[in-house]
Design a protein that fits this description.
Radius of gyration: 24 Å
Helix content: 25-40%
Bound molecules: zinc ion
Shape: elongated
Distance between the termini: 28 Å
Number of strands: 19
Mean pLDDT: 88
Number of helices: 14
Structural class: alpha/beta
């Protein structure tokens, strides 16, 4: 007779066996009505080239064979991860009495993780469904597996070396975030390093980049040329919008011209739309952009800084995902392109990057999932009270800024705190705050003081060291995507994509 813990321990053994075989570690066991072991199973999708070979299905088949009966009436199945719709359906058909799972699965869980089919009165068969048995161990095994396996997992120093002369006096132009409608049923995974992976219907391989200037004017056209050359050298086809180099006052053309460039970006053929730079100018365009058209275009928008306004408005109005990452001129138009920035950009676009690990020696303990959102702090704060700030509950908020004195950073954080934005997040992840100057009358008050104040003020875990900001070494981050964040031994891990089965 096996109890919950005994049965789940066997399922965990199965999951470990799966991991040893290169399969995602999910294990299952089936017990008969008396609690005796009938069958075991683990994921075999890659081994068997079988999309249905999830642990539960494998265990159900073995149990049915051992009973010589396709009905497993009264039996009980234990699985380390919340079942998907397919497996839950199979278990109902098998007439199981009880289904017990370990860790929740926010990606494909059919017992509340994504949808809840566990107790639908309109289905003709049911089972009692419970979750959370040894959830920590079950989840840890998955997390550890992904951490170890991700080819693209990489350690990034918490303090990227910065040459102050490289830093723009003004905020560099943000690029446009990639907007990608998260269509139900379509895998929109941004990551998977496994060529045999059966999880992704389509590995996105964006092959063309369209450059627009929705914010500040590009000061030096030669830098844009250089950026285009560099992007071509990476294998992209590249085109610049006809007003990418336009100038009107401090802007890259009049409002009308910049709006028209966004419209053209939706209609042209390249799948990625990148901002040439940040600066300022998107805020005044927000009411005039057709957000649904942006989301429906399927284009991947990428940018940063001022572009935060675009990303967050898109998220607020449509829920579509865009990318916070490099901009053409700042990241690819200078003397040197940072290797890691380039690699992270390409791996994120091609869907290879699954976990971004970085040093975070003082991080608060956290292990959470939520919508990743944020960007430039000044831009986030500027959207408070407008229809363009997404209302994210339980999110993972990332923030960076440049040329803002620590007291100004604190003041903007205070605004977000007072507006109720900070308290409802699962984690606050701080990127790089750079290019400010302390004065003697600060009396020792610096960015560390701000972080200390933040921790004392808001009861939300704070993680520092994110390689993102107005710096050379920067990650490409999916704004609006569901991600995980975990800290451990002085490292932080941003899980951009978890395979489940
Ligand atoms: Zn399944």
């Amino acid at each position: 007779m096996l109890d919950d813990d005994g049965a789940m321990a066997l399922a965990l053994d199965q999951a470990r066996q799966a991991a040893a075989l290169g399969e995602v570690p999910v294990g299952a066991v089936v017990l008969d009505a008396e609690g005796r072991l009938l069958a075991t199973g683990h994921n075999r999708t890659i081994l068997d080239r079988d999309p249905t070979a999830h642990a539960e299905v494998v265990a159900l088949r073995a149990a049915a064979r051992s009973l010589d009966n396709y009905r497993l009436s009264g039996a009980r199945l234990y699985v380390t991860l919340e079942p998907c719709t397919m497996c839950l359906g199979a278990m109902f058909h098998a007439r199981l009495a009880d289904i017990v799972y370990g860790a929740p699965d926010p990606k494909t869980g059919a017992c509340g993780g994504v949808i809840d089919l566990s107790d639908q009165p309109r289905l003709n068969h049911h089972a009692r469904v419970r979750g959370g048995v040894q959830a920590q161990d079950c989840g840890d095994l998955l997390r550890e597996f992904f951490r170890a396996r991700r080819k693209a997992a990489r350690a990034i120093p918490s303090s990227p070396s910065q040459d102050p002369s490289d830093m723009p006096k003004q905020k560099p132009a943000p690029a446009q975030p990639a907007s990608r409608p998260a269509a139900a049923g379509e895998h929109t995974h941004l990551v998977c390093g496994d060529p045999d992976c059966g999880e992704h219907h389509v590995h996105e391989q964006p092959s063309g980049i369209y450059l627009i200037s929705p914010s500040g004017a590009v000061a030096d056209p030669a830098k844009l040329d250089l950026a285009m050359e560099r992007l071509r050298a990476m294998g992209f086809r590249v085109a610049a919008d006809r007003t990418a180099l336009a100038v009107h006052e401090r802007f890259a053309g009049t409002d009308k011209q910049r709006l028209a460039s966004i419209q053209r970006a939706l209609k042209q053929k390249h799948p990625v739309v990148m901002a040439t730079r940040g600066g300022y100018g998107l805020s005044r365009l927000l009411p005039h952009i057709d957000w649904q058209a942006v989301a429906d275009s399927g284009k991947t928008f990428i940018g940063q800084s001022d572009f935060t306004a675009f990303s967050l408005a898109l998220l607020a109005r449509t829920g579509a995902v865009s990318l916070a990452g490099p901009t053409a001129v700042f990241d690819f138009g200078g003397k040197k392109v940072d290797d890691l920035t380039q690699a992270l950009f390409q791996e994120t676009l091609s869907g290879e990057l699954e976990i971004l690990s970085f040093e975070s020696p003082d991080a608060d303990p956290v292990d959470a999932r939520g919508i990743l959102w944020g960007g430039n702090l000044a831009m986030v704060a500027s959207l408070v009270g407008t229809p363009y700030l997404p209302d994210i509950q339980g999110g993972i908020l990332f923030l960076e800024d440049v040329a803002e004195h620590p007291y100004r950073v604190e003041r903007m954080l205070t605004q977000l705190w007072h507006a109720g934005v900070l308290a409802k997040q699962h984690a606050i992840v701080l990127g790089q705050f750079t290019d400010y100057r302390l004065a003697p009358h600060d009396g020792g008050y610096d960015m560390h003081s701000v972080v200390r104040w933040l921790r004392q003020t808001v009861r939300v875990p704070v993680v520092t060291g994110l390689p993102y900001g107005h710096v050379k070494v920067k990650a490409t981050l999916p704004v609006g995507a569901r991600v995980g964040i975990a800290t451990e031994d002085g490292m932080a891990h941003l899980v951009l994509q978890e395979h489940t089965h």
